[in-house]
Amino acid sequence: MFNFRGKAYLTLMTFCIKIIFRKQINYHVFFMIAIINYKMGNLQSVGNLLEYLGEEYVITDKKEEIAGADKIILPGVGAFTEAMKNLRELDLLDILKEEVLEKKKPFLGICLGMQILAEKGYEGGECDGLGFLKGEVRHFDLKDKKLPIPHVGWNTVKPKEGSILYGNDVRERVFYFVHSYHLICKDEEDVSGYADYGGNFVASVEKGNIFATQFHPEKSQDDGIEVFKNFLAYKSA
Amino acid sequence: MLKKRLIACLLLKDGQLVESIGFSRFLVVGNAIMAVKHFNAWGVDEIIFLDINREKNYDFERNDVYYDNTLKEFAEVIRYVSKSSFVPITAGGGIRSLDDIRKYLSAGADKVSINSAAIENLQIITEGAKRFGKQCLVVSVDAKKMPDGTHHVMKNFGKEDTGMNVVEWAKKAEEAGAGEIFLTSVDMDGSLQGYDIPLIKSVVEAVNIPVIASGGVGDWNHLVEGIELGGVAAVSVGNKFHFTEHSTMHAKKYMKEHGIDTR
C-alpha cells in the first residue's frame, strides 16, 4: 500500500516537473515571432493574422523574449513622439538596435512602426527616431486642399522590381492605409513601393533584413496576407 | 488613387444582428460572427459594428447559432470577430469614456465610433485624439430633417433633438480631432429609398475629413449616387446586405461598372 502511494507521488511529481520544464523550453524555443508591445495601438490584429497563418508569436515588452525570437514585428498606431517616449521608457531602444542592426534579425515595421525607423519625425514636436533608415517623417503637404487628411482607405501600391515583400512581383496591389504623416527617404534604393495620394509617397521600404510598410497588411485581406507570408518566408543571409 | 470604400454596417441588439427601420423597429437577421466571416470572404472594405443595446443585458446564449455563445459583453464580441476579420473594424455604441475607447481598441477594433458622448462633452474627442490618434475616432452623427429644410443632430438613438445644425456640428467635431464622420439619416434609415443626398453634400463640403454615408440603401445605384452626387469617401450599407447572397460582390461589381474606383 505504502509502496503504491509512494510510486503515485513520484509519478505525480515527475509529471509536474515535466510540465514546468516543458513550459520553460517552450518559452525559448517554440515561439518564433516577437510582436513588440510599446502601448501603441492595435497589436492583437497582427497576432490574429499570425495565428491564422499558424505561426507562434508572443506579444511582449521584455528584452529576453525579443532576444529569443527569430523575427521581430513592430506595429503601431499613434504619434511619433509618444512612440519613441514609450520605447525609451521600456528601455527597448538598445535591444532593438542590437537585434536588428547587429544580429540582422528579420524585422517588419508597420505604419508608425515604419515611421519611427527614420532619423527624425515632426508629429507631436520634433523628435529623433530609431535612425535605421535615412530620412524623416513629415505631415502630408498636399497641393489639392480638397483631399481629406488623414489618408484613410484602400489605395494602390506599385511595387518596385526585386522586392521581397511583394515576392518580386510588380503587379499593383491594394492595401489599407490610415495616416497623416509619411516617410521621406533619402536613399531611393530603400523604397520598395510607392502609393499615390496627391503625389507619390513611400508605401513600403526594404533595406537588408529591415522591412516596413506604411499600410496595414494585417487589415488588407488577401494582398496583406501575402505580404506577411513573404516576410515569414524570408531568412536573413 | 484612393479607392472608394464599401462598408458593411452591422447592428447588434441583445447579441443578435438586427435590421433597423427608422431607428425604432428592429428585425433579427441572424448571427454576427457568421456575418463577419461572410463579409470577409466577399471582399467588403470595412466593417462597422454598432451595439444598439439599450438596456445592456446581453444574451448571447442561443443554442441554435453556431458559435461561442458564452460571450457576455460587446467587447468580447469584438475580440471574437476580430480573429476572423482581416479588414478594419469600427466598434461603437455606448462609449462614454477614454477607458471605453481603450477597451474596444485593445479588444481588436481599429476605430471607435462615438455619438452621444461627443454631443455631451466634446472633450472626449480632443483627449481621445491626443491619446489614440485621430485616425481611430469616428464621430457618428444622426441627422433628422426639420420642417425648414435644415438638418438637426439627434441624440439618444435618434429620438431627442439637440437643436444643433448638422453642418456646424460636423465642423466642430473635425476641429476637436475627429478622424471621420459617420453620417446617418434618421428619416431614410431602413427606407430603401437611397441616401439623403442634400444632407450628405452639405456635410462633405463643410469638412475636410472623410465622410461615410449611411441609412437608406435599397438599390446598388444608391451607392453610386452617394459617391457621385454626395461626394463621400465611403458608403455604408446595413439592411440591404443581409438579404442578398454575395451582396458585397454584387455591390462592388455594380459600382465598378458605373465608373467608381473600388477595390
UniProtKB/TrEMBL annotation, chain B:
Pathway as given in its UniProt record: Amino-acid biosynthesis; L-histidine biosynthesis; L-histidine from 5-phospho-alpha-D-ribose 1-diphosphate: step 5/9
Entry-linked InterPro entries: Aldolase_TIM (IPR013785), His_biosynth (IPR006062), HisF (IPR004651), IGPS_HisA/HisF (IPR050064), RibuloseP-bd_barrel (IPR011060)
Alphabetically ordered keywords of this record: Amino-acid biosynthesis, Histidine biosynthesis, Lyase
Enzyme class at the top of the EC tree: lyase
Superkingdom of source: Bacteria
Catalysed transformations (reactions): 5-[(5-phospho-1-deoxy-D-ribulos-1-ylimino)methylamino]-1-(5-phospho-beta-D-ribosyl)imidazole-4-carboxamide + L-glutamine = D-erythro-1-(imidazol-4-yl)glycerol 3-phosphate + 5-amino-1-(5-phospho-beta-D-ribosyl)imidazole-4-carboxamide + L-glutamate + H(+)
One Gene Ontology term from the biological process aspect of the record: L-histidine biosynthetic process
UniProt xrefs under CDD domains: HisF (cd04731)
Stored SUPFAM superfamilies: Ribulose-phoshate binding barrel
EC number(s) per entry: 4.3.2.10
Function (record text): IGPS catalyzes the conversion of PRFAR and glutamine to IGP, AICAR and glutamate. The HisF subunit catalyzes the cyclization activity that produces IGP and AICAR from PRFAR using the ammonia provided by the HisH subunit.
Subunit structure: Heterodimer of HisH and HisF.
Record family assignment: Belongs to the HisA/HisF family.
Protein name stated in the entry: imidazole glycerol-phosphate synthase
